[in-house]
């Protein structure tokens, strides 16, 4: 097994894929809020819904006025600039925040789950092409991919195209084992730089921070990007607002800012 | 007086041809050496091979690195791939040719350069 470091590991991570073994670990919550945080820091960010089995960004961001879906871009029937919806006006700061939505229609979901290997191969090259069109050519600073859990074609495509994989996990036993397997049998094989986000942490006292970090290192052998305590406010919000945008003083917003800082300063090695 | 003037145009052309043939021969030998090194078990020519992520996952490590670099570059020579992977050009040339034999890559010659790429069908 290749345990070597990703070539150019010290390069800045510009394409971030948020992934997890199981569903319900907080991928979308982290993707949306991290993308918004990076935008608030003055960056030009594009957030993509690559969870074609259960699209959700259109509902969370309360928008559906895209000319095309991400599905259309991957099908080769639409340019990426027609997919991206400019949501910068929702930010109070100077950054730029764009979103690419997955088609939530049942037929589209069915269609995406029936794609063959050749199509998936083309989809990978379309995702890889975003580095040139958006980062090098479109002035974007970061692309954030929100993915499906587990070993899905669309998720692995996103992982291969990414510079950094953010793995959302909880303390649940089934999630811990599966996450560890994915680290060894997926991210390592692709030599991906990986950071762990431990979500729904019950005992999150400041004094426990170092202990948690060491525990994560010992369990997963990857650095901890951040841990998110179990906030009842997040549950109560029912996905109705974006903390990074709407609740600037909430501890979750501050945690996200710390994560963004680590990503921007490449402090994850 | 330059080399061409001393030798005349024809001998120089012949020498170029010999060099080109030697390079091709060298490439073939590199493939044979690599095949022996890793055993023939990795080589299964597939009629409908595609370089998708599940295929990449199931590949032996040494080939995956080369195949992933081709996915990123689109179309490249062994020299360009070796700059990305920091492995020797001869090694990359052998791996690329193995991937061609397995049906995952196509090879196209343009003058003295050999370009490798994954064939992609139009999506639908």
Range of helix content of chain B = 55-70%
Annotation, overall tally of beta strands of chain B: 3
Question: Which parts of chain A are unreliable, with pLDDT below 50 for 5 consecutive residues or more?
Answer: 1-8
Trace the largest sheet of chain A across and list its strands: 3-4-2-5-1-6-7-8
List the helices and strands of chain A in order.
Answer: EHEHHEEHHEHEHEHEHHH
What is the count of structural domains of chain B? 1
Q: CATH architecture of chain B, please?
A: Orthogonal Bundle
Number of H- or I-type helical stretches of chain B: 6
Q: Gap between N and C termini of chain A, in Å?
A: 20 Å
Mean pLDDT of chain B comes to 82
Task: Indicate the multimeric state.
Answer: heterodimer
Helix and strand composition category of chain B: mainly alpha
Distance between the termini of chain B: 61 Å
CATH fold call of chain B: Arc Repressor Mutant, subunit A
Which range does the strand content of chain B fall in? Answer: 5-15%
Helix content of chain A: 40-55%
Structural class of the secondary elements of chain A?
A: alpha/beta
Question: Rg of chain B to the nearest angstrom?
Answer: 17 Å
Short description:
Helix content of chain A is 42%, strand content 17%.
Q: Your description of this structure?
A:
The complex is a heterodimer of chains A (269) and B (124). In chain A, strand 6, helix 7 and strand 7 form a beta-alpha-beta unit. Chain A is built from eleven helices and eight strands. Chain A has a domain of 140 residues: Rossmann fold. The N terminus of chain A is likely disordered. The radius of gyration of chain A is 17 Å and the shape is globular. In chain A, strands 3-4-2-5-1-6-7-8 form an eight-stranded mixed β-sheet, sandwiched between helices. The relative contact order of chain A is 0.19. Chain A is an alpha/beta fold. Helices cover 42% and strands 17% of the residues of chain A. By secondary structure, chain B is mainly alpha-helical. Chain B has a single domain, classed as Winged helix-like DNA-binding domain superfamily/Winged helix DNA-binding domain (Arc Repressor Mutant, subunit A). Chain B is built from six helices and three strands; from the N terminus they run ααααβααββ. Chain B has a three-stranded antiparallel β-sheet. In chain B, strand 2 and strand 3 form a beta hairpin. In chain B, helix 2 crosses helix 6 and helix 5 crosses helix 6. At the A-B interface, helix 5 and helix 6 of A face helix 3 and helix 4 of B.
């Amino acid at each position: 097994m290749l345990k070597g470091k990703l070539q150019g590991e010290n390069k800045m991570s510009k394409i971030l894929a948020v992934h997890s073994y199981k569903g319900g670990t907080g991928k979308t919550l982290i993707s949306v809020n991290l993308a918004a945080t990076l935008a608030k820091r003055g960056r030009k960010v594009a957030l993509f819904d690559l969870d074609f089995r259960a699209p959700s960004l259109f509902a969370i961001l309360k928008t559906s006025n895209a000319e095309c879906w991400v599905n259309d871009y991957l099908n080769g029937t639409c340019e990426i600039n027609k997919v991206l919806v400019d949501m910068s006006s929702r930010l109070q700061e100077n950054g730029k925040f764009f979103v690419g939505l997955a088609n939530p229609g049942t037929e589209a979901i069915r269609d995406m789950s029936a794609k063959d290997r050749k199509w998936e191969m083309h989809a990978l090259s379309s995702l890889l092409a975003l580095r040139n069109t958006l980062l090098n050519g479109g002035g974007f600073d970061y692309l954030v991919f929100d993915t499906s859990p587990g070993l899905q074609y669309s998720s692995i495509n996103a992982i291969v195209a990414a510079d950094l994989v953010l793995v959302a996990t909880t303390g649940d036993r089934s999630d811990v084992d599966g996450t560890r397997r994915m680290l060894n049998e997926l991210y390592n094989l692709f030599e991906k730089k990986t950071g762990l986000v431990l979500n729904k942490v019950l005992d999150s006292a400041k004094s426990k921070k170092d202990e948690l970090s060491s525990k994560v290192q010992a369990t997963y052998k990857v650095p901890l990007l951040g841990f998110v305590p179990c906030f009842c406010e997040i549950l109560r919000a029912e996905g109705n607002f974006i903390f990074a945008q709407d609740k600037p003083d909430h501890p979750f917003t501050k945690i996200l800012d710390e994560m963004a800082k680590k990503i921007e300063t490449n402090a994850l090695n | 007086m330059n080399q061409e003037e001393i030798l005349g145009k024809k001998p120089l052309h012949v020498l170029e041809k010999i060099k080109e043939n030697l390079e091709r021969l060298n490439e073939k030998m590199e493939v044979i050496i690599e095949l022996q090194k890793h055993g023939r078990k990795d080589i299964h020519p597939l009629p409908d091979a595609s370089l998708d992520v599940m295929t990449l996952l199931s590949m032996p490590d040494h080939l995956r690195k080369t195949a992933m670099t081709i996915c990123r570059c689109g179309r490249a020579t062994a020299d360009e791939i070796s700059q990305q992977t920091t492995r020797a050009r001869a090694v990359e040339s052998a791996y690329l040719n193995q991937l061609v034999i397995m049906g995952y890559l196509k090879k196209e010659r343009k003058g003295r350069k050999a370009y490798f790429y994954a064939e992609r069908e139009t999506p639908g």
